[in-house]
Design goal:
41% helix; 220 residues; seven-stranded mixed β-sheet; 20% strand
Length: 220
Protein backbone atom coordinates (compact mmCIF):
# COMPACT_ATOMS: atom_id res chain seq x y z
CA UNK A 1 0.00 0.00 0.00
CA UNK A 2 1.24 3.49 -0.83
CA UNK A 3 0.54 7.01 0.30
CA UNK A 4 -1.16 7.61 -3.05
CA UNK A 5 -3.68 4.87 -2.23
CA UNK A 6 -4.19 6.25 1.28
CA UNK A 7 -4.83 9.72 -0.13
CA UNK A 8 -7.23 8.41 -2.77
CA UNK A 9 -9.26 6.55 -0.15
CA UNK A 10 -9.26 9.59 2.14
CA UNK A 11 -10.52 11.72 -0.74
CA UNK A 12 -13.26 9.18 -1.46
CA UNK A 13 -14.32 9.12 2.20
CA UNK A 14 -14.29 12.91 2.42
CA UNK A 15 -16.33 13.36 -0.74
CA UNK A 16 -18.85 10.74 0.37
CA UNK A 17 -19.24 11.60 4.04
CA UNK A 18 -17.43 14.73 5.17
CA UNK A 19 -18.91 17.38 2.87
CA UNK A 20 -16.40 20.18 3.30
CA UNK A 21 -17.70 23.66 2.53
CA UNK A 22 -16.47 27.01 1.25
CA UNK A 23 -15.40 28.29 4.69
CA UNK A 24 -13.30 25.22 5.45
CA UNK A 25 -11.73 25.23 2.00
CA UNK A 26 -11.00 28.95 2.32
CA UNK A 27 -9.30 28.28 5.65
CA UNK A 28 -6.97 25.76 4.02
CA UNK A 29 -6.30 28.07 1.07
CA UNK A 30 -5.53 31.02 3.33
CA UNK A 31 -3.18 28.87 5.39
CA UNK A 32 -1.33 27.73 2.27
CA UNK A 33 -1.10 31.30 0.98
CA UNK A 34 0.33 32.44 4.32
CA UNK A 35 3.00 29.74 4.25
CA UNK A 36 1.60 27.93 7.27
CA UNK A 37 2.83 24.32 7.41
CA UNK A 38 0.26 21.87 6.08
CA UNK A 39 0.07 19.93 9.33
CA UNK A 40 -3.59 20.56 10.09
CA UNK A 41 -5.86 17.57 10.56
CA UNK A 42 -7.32 15.99 7.43
CA UNK A 43 -11.00 16.68 6.61
CA UNK A 44 -12.22 13.29 7.85
CA UNK A 45 -10.25 13.79 11.07
CA UNK A 46 -11.75 17.26 11.48
CA UNK A 47 -15.22 15.78 11.20
CA UNK A 48 -14.27 13.13 13.75
CA UNK A 49 -13.39 15.89 16.23
CA UNK A 50 -16.72 17.51 15.43
CA UNK A 51 -18.54 14.26 16.11
CA UNK A 52 -16.66 13.61 19.35
CA UNK A 53 -17.72 17.04 20.57
CA UNK A 54 -21.32 16.20 19.72
CA UNK A 55 -21.08 12.80 21.44
CA UNK A 56 -20.08 14.32 24.77
CA UNK A 57 -22.51 17.20 24.43
CA UNK A 58 -19.62 19.64 24.66
CA UNK A 59 -20.27 23.20 25.76
CA UNK A 60 -16.65 24.07 26.51
CA UNK A 61 -13.72 22.93 24.37
CA UNK A 62 -10.01 23.55 24.86
CA UNK A 63 -7.56 23.28 21.98
CA UNK A 64 -3.81 23.38 22.51
CA UNK A 65 -2.26 24.37 19.17
CA UNK A 66 -4.42 26.47 16.83
CA UNK A 67 -2.34 26.69 13.63
CA UNK A 68 -4.65 28.21 10.99
CA UNK A 69 -7.86 27.38 12.80
CA UNK A 70 -9.05 24.47 10.64
CA UNK A 71 -9.66 22.02 13.49
CA UNK A 72 -10.92 24.94 15.57
CA UNK A 73 -13.73 25.57 13.11
CA UNK A 74 -14.72 21.90 12.97
CA UNK A 75 -15.02 21.68 16.75
CA UNK A 76 -16.64 25.09 17.22
CA UNK A 77 -19.41 24.09 14.83
CA UNK A 78 -20.41 21.33 17.26
CA UNK A 79 -21.01 23.80 20.10
CA UNK A 80 -24.37 25.28 21.09
CA UNK A 81 -24.90 29.03 20.82
CA UNK A 82 -23.83 29.54 24.42
CA UNK A 83 -20.76 27.31 24.06
CA UNK A 84 -17.14 28.41 23.99
CA UNK A 85 -13.91 27.15 22.51
CA UNK A 86 -10.60 28.39 23.90
CA UNK A 87 -7.59 27.74 21.68
CA UNK A 88 -3.94 28.44 22.53
CA UNK A 89 -1.34 29.41 19.93
CA UNK A 90 2.28 30.42 20.44
CA UNK A 91 2.93 31.88 16.97
CA UNK A 92 1.50 35.41 16.41
CA UNK A 93 1.28 34.84 12.65
CA UNK A 94 -0.73 31.67 13.09
CA UNK A 95 -2.97 33.24 15.73
CA UNK A 96 -3.75 36.21 13.50
CA UNK A 97 -4.54 33.97 10.54
CA UNK A 98 -6.73 31.73 12.69
CA UNK A 99 -8.65 34.75 13.95
CA UNK A 100 -9.47 35.76 10.39
CA UNK A 101 -10.41 32.20 9.44
CA UNK A 102 -12.73 31.53 12.37
CA UNK A 103 -14.42 34.89 11.89
CA UNK A 104 -14.93 34.21 8.20
CA UNK A 105 -16.39 30.81 9.06
CA UNK A 106 -18.97 32.44 11.32
CA UNK A 107 -17.82 30.91 14.60
CA UNK A 108 -15.78 33.86 15.80
CA UNK A 109 -18.16 34.86 18.63
CA UNK A 110 -17.64 31.55 20.44
CA UNK A 111 -13.90 31.15 19.76
CA UNK A 112 -11.31 32.75 22.02
CA UNK A 113 -7.75 32.64 20.67
CA UNK A 114 -5.08 33.16 23.32
CA UNK A 115 -1.59 34.06 22.15
CA UNK A 116 1.37 32.69 24.06
CA UNK A 117 3.09 29.52 25.17
CA UNK A 118 0.50 27.01 26.29
CA UNK A 119 2.29 26.16 29.54
CA UNK A 120 2.19 29.84 30.45
CA UNK A 121 -1.50 30.21 29.57
CA UNK A 122 -2.95 27.00 30.98
CA UNK A 123 -2.79 27.90 34.71
CA UNK A 124 -5.14 30.84 34.17
CA UNK A 125 -7.74 28.52 32.66
CA UNK A 126 -8.29 26.69 35.93
CA UNK A 127 -11.22 28.96 36.72
CA UNK A 128 -12.69 28.56 33.23
CA UNK A 129 -13.20 24.82 33.27
CA UNK A 130 -14.08 22.14 33.30
CA UNK A 131 -13.74 21.50 29.58
CA UNK A 132 -15.74 18.73 27.97
CA UNK A 133 -13.32 18.06 25.10
CA UNK A 134 -9.61 18.85 25.06
CA UNK A 135 -7.62 18.52 21.83
CA UNK A 136 -3.82 18.53 22.10
CA UNK A 137 -2.01 19.21 18.83
CA UNK A 138 1.06 21.26 19.69
CA UNK A 139 4.80 20.72 20.16
CA UNK A 140 5.31 17.06 20.92
CA UNK A 141 8.06 17.40 23.49
CA UNK A 142 5.62 19.01 25.95
CA UNK A 143 2.79 16.54 25.42
CA UNK A 144 3.09 15.13 28.96
CA UNK A 145 2.64 18.49 30.74
CA UNK A 146 -0.16 19.36 28.30
CA UNK A 147 -1.87 16.10 29.20
CA UNK A 148 -1.39 16.77 32.90
CA UNK A 149 -3.07 20.14 32.50
CA UNK A 150 -5.84 18.55 30.45
CA UNK A 151 -6.59 16.25 33.36
CA UNK A 152 -6.66 19.21 35.73
CA UNK A 153 -9.08 21.08 33.46
CA UNK A 154 -11.33 18.10 32.68
CA UNK A 155 -14.34 16.53 34.41
CA UNK A 156 -15.54 12.94 34.67
CA UNK A 157 -16.66 12.03 31.15
CA UNK A 158 -14.42 14.55 29.40
CA UNK A 159 -12.54 13.42 26.32
CA UNK A 160 -8.85 14.18 25.78
CA UNK A 161 -7.59 13.70 22.22
CA UNK A 162 -3.88 13.86 21.38
CA UNK A 163 -2.74 14.05 17.75
CA UNK A 164 0.43 12.75 16.04
CA UNK A 165 1.15 9.93 18.47
CA UNK A 166 2.58 7.41 15.96
CA UNK A 167 5.25 9.51 14.20
CA UNK A 168 5.37 7.34 11.05
CA UNK A 169 5.82 4.29 13.26
CA UNK A 170 8.92 5.62 14.99
CA UNK A 171 7.12 5.72 18.35
CA UNK A 172 7.75 1.97 18.63
CA UNK A 173 11.53 2.51 18.46
CA UNK A 174 12.97 3.12 21.94
CA UNK A 175 16.35 4.03 20.44
CA UNK A 176 15.00 6.90 18.32
CA UNK A 177 16.95 10.14 18.76
CA UNK A 178 14.02 12.24 17.51
CA UNK A 179 12.89 14.52 20.33
CA UNK A 180 9.28 14.42 19.13
CA UNK A 181 9.29 10.61 19.16
CA UNK A 182 10.74 10.58 22.64
CA UNK A 183 8.15 13.14 23.71
CA UNK A 184 5.42 10.81 22.51
CA UNK A 185 7.00 7.79 24.19
CA UNK A 186 6.98 9.72 27.47
CA UNK A 187 3.32 10.48 26.85
CA UNK A 188 2.48 6.79 26.31
CA UNK A 189 4.23 5.93 29.56
CA UNK A 190 2.34 8.69 31.36
CA UNK A 191 -0.98 7.63 29.84
CA UNK A 192 -0.41 3.96 30.66
CA UNK A 193 0.10 4.78 34.32
CA UNK A 194 -2.82 7.18 34.70
CA UNK A 195 -5.67 5.44 36.54
CA UNK A 196 -8.09 8.32 36.15
CA UNK A 197 -8.61 7.64 32.44
CA UNK A 198 -9.42 4.84 30.03
CA UNK A 199 -7.40 5.27 26.85
CA UNK A 200 -6.31 3.81 23.55
CA UNK A 201 -4.45 4.93 20.43
CA UNK A 202 -5.30 4.48 16.75
CA UNK A 203 -2.96 4.40 13.75
CA UNK A 204 -4.06 6.48 10.76
CA UNK A 205 -3.03 6.79 7.11
CA UNK A 206 -4.03 9.34 4.51
CA UNK A 207 -2.96 12.59 2.89
CA UNK A 208 -1.00 13.45 6.04
CA UNK A 209 1.00 10.22 5.82
CA UNK A 210 1.26 7.59 8.53
CA UNK A 211 0.46 8.74 12.05
CA UNK A 212 -2.27 8.36 14.64
CA UNK A 213 -4.07 9.77 17.63
CA UNK A 214 -4.76 8.83 21.23
CA UNK A 215 -8.07 9.28 22.96
CA UNK A 216 -8.72 9.14 26.69
CA UNK A 217 -11.96 9.43 28.61
CA UNK A 218 -11.87 10.63 32.19
CA UNK A 219 -13.48 8.03 34.43
CA UNK A 220 -16.46 8.87 36.66
Amino acid sequence: MTEEVWSNVERYISEALVHSDAALEATLSASDAAGVPSINVAPNQGKLLHMLALMVGAKRILEIGTLGGYSTIWMARALPEDGQLVTLEADPKHASLARRNVDAAGVGPIVEIQLGKALDLLPALASRGPFDLIFIDADKTNTVPYFDWALTLARPGSLIVVDNVVRKGAVADPSSSDKDVQGMRRFYARLAGERRVTATAIQTVGSKGYDGFAIAIVKP
